[in-house]
Amino acid sequence: MRSVALKDRVPLGPKGPLGVLVDPMTWRAAPYLLVTGIVGLGWFMVLSITIPASLTLSIVWVGVPLIMATVLMWRGGAMLERRLLHAAFGVRIADPYRPRPERGVGAHLRWLLSDPATWQDLGYLLMLLPLGAVEVALSFGLWFASITFLVQPLLYLVYATGGGYSDLMVGDWAPGAWIAALFGGLLLVLTAYLVRGMAWLHGTLATVLLGGNEEERLRASRARGIDAAEAERRRIERDLHDGAQQRLLSVAVDLGRAQAKFDSEPDEVRMLIAQAHAGTKAAIAELRNLARGIHPAILSDRGLDAALSGLAARAPIRVDVSVELDERPPPAVESIAYFIVAETLANMAKHSGATEASVTLIRDYRGVVVDVWDNGIGGALLSPGGGLSGLADRAATIDGVMVVHSPVGGPTLIRAELPCEW
């Protein structure tokens, strides 16, 4: 699985006081920082009860499922935190867990307890209480002070027109109210910068704890890449053996028979030569298709926009293609993006029953993002050994990640995020 790199953590946002105030990331991070202490307190209370209880009951059989339920609970909480961090801070952290075993309570228990990510999740949830307490205190105090100073002219206006004196007023002098408002504006900018700083710090700590072990993740990514390359090699070998090789063998046999009958049976010789000619053309077509499956020439010559438009033109339904790339990405990224779209469209034509689809490629701060959408019946899964799993393995060769959202009844969205540097 893929955790975020350093460049994927909370972006600093637009430069300048006005930029940090109008940046949506500031206002998405602020509510999270105001409630994170409460969330941390809730997790501390729940875990302080369930962990001792499950360990105490482990001396009898009921403790084993309770331990599994407790661990699954905090792993679910960590998974939710990863989604919230992405929504609040823009930090994208993939779930770094080891593959789940096929069956067996004992195997599942060992899987849960031996995975380092399980204990890193627990550490993060326990860290939320002290970290959140500091974040809530600073955030609430700074926002409250900023707003209080900013509304001083309004409070003075109410006071001057016969209203009561508010405890929030800093004085009953009109120039003083405007000076306080100016100070409040400066304090608001400072608060926005501090919010972004706390968001960056929180996102960095979350990346370390919730992103899993980087070395183990890279080993798994390389292993999946090697497996994908080996599967591709076997496919090419099988296609050559079953297709072009058999046709060329048939051509050789026909030419041998024609040579043997060249003088005695000229009519049959002409027929055999015609068969050999047709077989040669068929073999050339198969080799051309195989070469296109390895790396299409149009992709090298004209780039992703033209190559994906060609795929869309060959699809049995209408497929809208939108490619928004200022520059061509590296060849490896182009190739992986192309084959993800090609395989996804092929699966859609076979299984989805869709009537329309779209392909979108954009570049953001993470790299190239590929979205393939269709309005079919849904139900697509990233199952081991399946075609979509092979695409995910192909993306993993460059440390990319692929996500499938395909509820039963549709629609289906397949997204691949391919990190790269131009």
Task: Tell me the radius of gyration.
Answer: 31 Å
What's the overall geometry? elongated
Largest sheet: 5 strands, mixed
Helix percent reads 55-70%
Looking at the chains present, what oligomeric state does this protein adopt?
single chain
Strand order within the widest beta sheet: 1-2-3-5-4
Helical stretch count? 13
What is the total tally of β strands?
Answer: 5
Overall residue-averaged pLDDT value: 78
Strand content: 5-15%
Briefly note the structural class of the backbone: alpha+beta
pLDDT < 50 stretches: 1-13
Q: What gap, in angstroms, lies between the N and C termini?
A: 23 Å
- What's the number of structural domains? 3
Q: Strand-and-helix sequence, N→C?
A: HHHHHHHHHHHEHEEHEE
Short description:
This protein is α+β, with helices and mostly antiparallel strands and 422 residues long. The protein has three domains: 6-212, no CATH class; 218-294; 301-419, Heat Shock Protein 90. It has helices at residues 17-22, 24-56, 63-89, 105-114, 116-150, 152-160, 174-210, 214-260, 266-294, 297-302, 304-314, 331-352, 387-396; strands at residues 318-324, 356-364, 367-374, 401-405, 412-419.
Your description of this structure?
This protein has 422 residues and is of the alpha+beta class. It has three domains: 6-212, no CATH class; 218-294; 301-419, Histidine kinase-like ATPase, C-terminal domain (Heat Shock Protein 90), CATH 3.30.565. It is built from 13 helices and five strands. A five-stranded mixed β-sheet has the order 1-2-3-5-4, covered by helices on one side. Strand 1, helix 12 (331-352) and strand 2 (356-364) form a beta-alpha-beta unit.
